[in-house]
Amino acid sequence: KARVLDGRVCNSAFSYTTGLAMVRRTAEADMVRLRRYEIPIKRVARNLCLDPALIAAIISQESRVGLLLDNGWDQERHKYGLMQLDGQQHHPFGVWDSEEHINQCSTILVLAINEVRARHPTWTWDQQLR
Questions:
Q1: Sorted alphabetically, which keywords does the UniProt record give (predicted)?
Q2: CATH number of 57's domain
Q3: How far is the C-alpha of 45 from the C-alpha of 102, rounded, in Å?
Q4: Does residue 23 fall inside a structural domain?
Q5: First to last CA, the chain
Q6: Active site residues
Q7: Does a structural domain hold residue 7?
């Protein structure tokens, strides 16, 4: 929860640098489990012209490479799979940790990125991706 001072969020608790360091530590801890999905991630990334590191990072952050999941579902049973597809908005394809499912989620990601790019063509790639 954010601490509020005079109606403003205290930025020191949520600095970009601190967040990035936490993401790196999490990804390093997840690296062993990510190796199991290296080939499907690379295949999907190649087919969709994505950086495989982006797919791996999302898998790490969303589900800790399946560590946080129960039979593929989050605790509330709303999101499904390694990349945490919203089960109420999309019908999941394949088993929660299959290449088919990684492809489905990555395709949704590409569509979302393309929507942002169309709406904000003057933004840098990093801004569009964020």
A1: Antimicrobial, Bacteriolytic enzyme, Disulfide bond, Glycosidase, Hydrolase, Secreted
A2: 1.10.530.10
A3: 10
A4: yes
A5: 21
A6: 62
A7: no
CA dihedral angle for residue 87, residue 95, residue 84, residue 40, rounded to 10 degrees: -140
Over its length of 130 residues, how does the chain's per-residue pLDDT go in tens digits? 333 333 444 444 445 566 778 877 887 889 999 999 999 999 999 999 999 999 999 999 999 999 999 999 999 999 999 999 998 899 999 999 999 999 999 999 999 999 999 999 999 999 998 8
How large is the angle between the packed helices 52-63 and 16-35, nearest 10 degrees?
100
**Distance between CA atoms of residues 54 and 76, nearest Å:** 25
Helices first, then strands: H and E counts in the chain:
5, 4
The total number of structural domains in the chain stands at 1
Q: 65: domain range?
A: 16-129
| Chain length of the chain | 130
The answer to whether residue 1 sits within a structural domain is no
